[in-house]
Specification:
Rossmann fold, 5 strands, five-stranded parallel beta sheet, 7 helices, alpha/beta
């Protein structure tokens, strides 16, 4: 199997989401040491933002694209190729202002691309997906300063990270029921609740890795202290 690990934290050090991602991958490779792992660090090496030139190139048939247009789409082509090869996508990200960081949104914008990963069918009013992007599992590993974003929680209505990722996940080839979320909370408080949340999330990430690596059914996980 092939893993694509997308890190979205701008921190090189002391990043809790990177720590979760590293724990997940380490546990996975302990069971499946010959699997491939590709790292895409959007938190440090930011994806290009969409521009008018990008949109024009995107809607131009491949055989009519100029060299300049192909260059504009080079990042998107590479990111989509990585995604197409992946069986499991791991997104490790902080939650900023109740949603995903701008760099992660930019990555989604680069890989969800008309005529490459989906197309419009105006007659049927559907958006067929590319056959290259199917049968994938997505693991979302997040960290946040606040708490209680889960169902019934104090901040459930303010939670826009997981719903946004879940909506976009189908365009990555992730079917319903194949997205799993492990979260660290309470970071801004720095108290025992945060320490417990870190411990629980690390345990949850490792347990999820073991279940998925063994191809066992794994229900969605939310380890939130």
């Amino acid at each position: 199997m092939n893993l694509l690990v997308v890190n979205a934290s701008p921190r090189r050090e002391r990043s809790l989401s990177r720590r979760l991602g590293a724990a997940f991958v380490a546990e996975w490779l302990a069971l499946r040491p010959h699997d491939g792992v590709v790292q895409r660090d959007v938190g440090i090496e930011h994806p290009p933002l969409l521009t008018e030139a990008w949109i024009a190139a995107c809607f131009t048939p491949d055989e009519q694209q100029t060299p300049e247009q192909r260059e504009v789409l080079a990042y998107s082509d590479a990111a989509i190729a990585e995604l197409a090869r992946a069986d499991l996508v791991v997104i490790a990200t902080p939650r900023y202002n109740y949603g995903m960081p701008a760099a992660l949104k930019a990555w989604f914008d680069q890989v969800i691309r008309i005529r490459r990963t989906f197309r419009f069918d105006r007659a049927e009013k559907t958006w067929p997906l590319s056959p290259l992007l199917s049968g994938k599992t997505l693991v979302l590993l997040s960290s946040s300063g606040e708490f209680a974003f889960g169902p019934g929680g104090l901040r459930e209505r303010w939670e826009h990270l997981e719903p946004h990722v879940r909506t976009c996940a189908r365009y990555l080839g992730v079917a319903d029921g194949h997205l799993h979320h492990v979260a660290i909370e309470y970071q801004e408080f720095g108290d025992e609740r945060h320490s417990a949340s870190v411990r629980d999330a690390l345990d949850g990430a490792q347990e999820l890795a073991r279940r998925l690596a063994r191809s066992e059914p794994a229900p969605g996980v939310r380890a939130t202290g």
